[in-house]
Amino acid sequence: MRIYTVDSFSDRIFRGNPAGVCLLDDPAPDAWMQSVAAEMRHSETAFVLAGANGGPYSLRWFTPAAEVALCGHATLAAAHVLYSTGAASETLEFSTKSGILSVTRDEDGLLTMDFPAKAIVEAAPPEGLVEALGVTPVRIGRNEWDYLVEVEGEAAVRSASPDFAALASVDARGVIITAESAEEGADYVSRFFAPRVGVPEDPVTGSAHCALAPYWSARIGREALVGRQLSERGGEIRTVVRGDRVELTGRAVTVLSGELHA
């Protein structure tokens, strides 16, 4: 089987968010896919299986520690591999735990994913969340997966230094911290922490922008925005809110490819 490492939401290697992509020949056991993801050690590894009779590809995502229900950067990576290897020429469709997801590519190589919006509702912080983050919240909310914590300004997002051991005890997939951008070229900034599923800080998180895009779109008053994730590697995602869906657009670049002997 072919296996790849792809840097998503970047047009340069060693930036954006690295993802593993494994092109399956046949359905694989869950335990085996989890072992491969642990061996790859990326925040996510995508497992792709061609659909029967030209139907949607099957797509699943695993962190080094657990399977997740939605992952943006690994979906972008999977689409990039399929396009770059000639397996697809038009719209791609993936059958996933979050329903059918589609990806399109424009003539300049930009990839756009059609994802579900994951609206944030105001929520009281669970015990230990604020202390684990070490920030002063302006607003706190959550959706079915993550907490979102808005802080006062970009500097607070950059300087946050969470206690990951304490944060792992929070009952959520992850925690997003965010603020309005202070620099040109972006509308909002964020960071994403998910130690509970084996990812202390994710470099660029597509699925978090399913919450960030509608959150900031309502605040700023525009459907189309640019989000910048302030991890060490960094990355940008163009977002457009369309009702209960969010379009996430970015680039990807292959870092390595090889054969899986397992």
Describe the protein's architecture and organization.
With 262 residues, this protein is α+β, with helices and mostly antiparallel strands. The chain is built from 6 helices and 18 strands. It has helices at residues 30-40, 72-84, 129-133, 154-159, 164-167, 206-220; strands at residues 2-8, 17-24, 45-49, 57-62, 67-68, 92-96, 99-105, 111-116, 121-122, 137-142, 146-151, 174-180, 188-194, 199-202, 224-229, 235-242, 245-250, 252-259. The chain has an 18-stranded mixed β-sheet that branches. It is globular. The model has no long low-confidence stretch (mean pLDDT 96).
Map the helices and strands:
Layout: E1 2-8, E2 17-24, H1 30-40, E3 45-49, E4 57-62, E5 67-68, H2 72-84, E6 92-96, E7 99-105, E8 111-116, E9 121-122, H3 129-133, E10 137-142, E11 146-151, H4 154-159, H5 164-167, E12 174-180, E13 188-194, E14 199-202, H6 206-220, E15 224-229, E16 235-242, E17 245-250, E18 252-259
Parallel strand pairs: 2-3, 4-6, 11-12, 13-15
Antiparallel strand pairs: 1-2, 1-18, 3-4, 4-5, 6-7, 7-8, 8-17, 9-10, 10-11, 12-13, 13-14, 15-16, 16-17
